[in-house]
Design goal:
Blueprint: H1 3-20, E1 25-28, H2 32-37, E2 44-45, H3 48-58, E3 66-70, H4 74-85, E4 91-96
Parallel strand pairs: 1-2, 1-3, 3-4
Helix pairs in contact: 3-4
Length: 106
């Protein structure tokens, strides 16, 4: 299995877990212009650049499961660390949208 295949598998498994977890929130941490070019359906856009100062206004419940993604998985990993420091308890980085194999919304 190539590294590329592993990233696809991470995204597929993350989406499967997100869809089977209720309630849960899917968060795209890319910037607004990237989000508008195409995003996973039903995701919420909270860019990494503002997540630290805006997450608590957007998502008050710190126990709700949060599934994060970006383009490659790097920014979503950084966002996960920020959210953990803020007290959110159920956070998962599902990787990068570049490995998402389904149709995106615009």
């Amino acid at each position: 299995m190539s590294v590329f295949d592993q990233y696809i598998k991470q995204m597929e498994e993350g989406m499967k877990e997100y869809k089977s977890t209720s309630p849960a929130v899917l968060i795209d941490v890319r910037e607004e212009d990237e989000y508008s070019e195409g995003h996973i359906p039903n995701s919420m856009n909270i860019p990494l650049s503002v997540i630290e100062n805006s997450i608590e206004q957007r998502i008050e419940n710190k126990n709700i499961p949060l599934f994060l993604y970006c383009f490659s998985g790097a920014r979503s990993e950084e966002a996960c660390m920020i959210l953990k420091r803020k007290g959110y308890s159920h956070i998962k980085n599902i990787g990068g949208i570049q490995f998402y194999q389904e149709t995106v919304s615009k």
